[in-house]
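User: Sequence recovery, please. Input:
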């Protein structure tokens, strides 16, 4: 009989390195925002996202990845790079600058542009879309093993369609009703729940917020927000992902384990 231990997985930075995909999406979104009269098509995509464009953009923006919470944050970083491109020591320092430039109306514009660009990019590239990702093979092995042993959920800021596409490309079958994403809470529309609220919703479905569970994350934001309400939470920090260790250490999260290499993840899950 399967152990009913509950494991909740982040996706980006835990199961795959998606940074190049995210920055490519940001590039397409920026092009559309800056050139509203020009459509992005299969004919001009290669030029828009040429190596000459993408290489310096990746180098410029990759250092800011620890501070990404939502997809549109890439566009804030792009358009406000002079303010947000400094060498921040932790998320608190970054957030102080981010709050000075943030505007809710502009954030909605960036959000729509980013996620529309992601779906467009996937449609235009077809199977080539998957070349933008670098799956962590050992992490996927741990995920497959966890499926055999426990009850698992995915909770991610990515859209559910993309998660299932990436799983399919890696021969992983996983029920949609257990993928909580930007657009869907399982099979139901996500009407605006944050990632933390989605985790709490999962717990409510699985016996309540007092139950024991394990969450696998590379960034500390969600575990910080959960720790006061979820006394039986255990946390695995995928240190190989995008988070900053200093932010994790300052968070004072109980039952925390650091995993510096994907190959070690299966031991912490078991």
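Assistant: Recovered sequence (270 residues):
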């Amino acid at each position: 009989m399967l152990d009913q231990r509950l494991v909740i997985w982040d996706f980006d930075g835990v199961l795959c390195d998606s940074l190049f995909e995210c920055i490519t999406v940001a590039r397409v979104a920026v092009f559309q925002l800056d050139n509203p009269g020009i459509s992005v098509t299969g004919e001009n995509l290669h030029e828009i996202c040429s190596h000459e464009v993408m290489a310096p953009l990746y180098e410029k923006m990759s250092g800011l990845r620890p501070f990404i919470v939502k997809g549109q944050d890439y566009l804030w970083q792009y358009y406000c790079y002079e303010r947000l491109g400094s060498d921040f020591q932790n998320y608190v320092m970054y957030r102080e600058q981010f709050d000075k430039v943030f505007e809710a109306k502009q954030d909605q514009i960036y959000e729509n542009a980013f996620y529309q660009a992601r779906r467009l990019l996937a449609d235009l590239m077809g199977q080539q879309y998957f070349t933008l990702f670098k799956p962590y093979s050992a992490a996927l092995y741990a995920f497959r093993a966890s499926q055999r042993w426990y009850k698992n959920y995915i909770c991610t800021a990515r859209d559910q369609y993309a998660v299932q596409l990436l799983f399919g490309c890696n021969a992983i079958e996983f029920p949609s009703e257990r993928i909580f994403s930007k657009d869907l809470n399982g099979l139901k529309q996500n009407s605006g729940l944050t990632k933390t609220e989605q985790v709490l919703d999962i717990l409510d479905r699985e016996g309540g917020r007092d139950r024991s569970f394990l969450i696998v994350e590379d960034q500390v934001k969600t575990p910080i927000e959960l720790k006061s309400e979820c006394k039986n939470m255990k946390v695995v920090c995928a240190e190989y992902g995008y988070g900053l260790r200093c932010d994790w250490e300052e968070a004072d999260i109980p039952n925390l384990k650091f995993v510096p290499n994907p190959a070690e993840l299966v031991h912490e899950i078991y």
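The chain has two domains: 6-16+133-269, 19-131.
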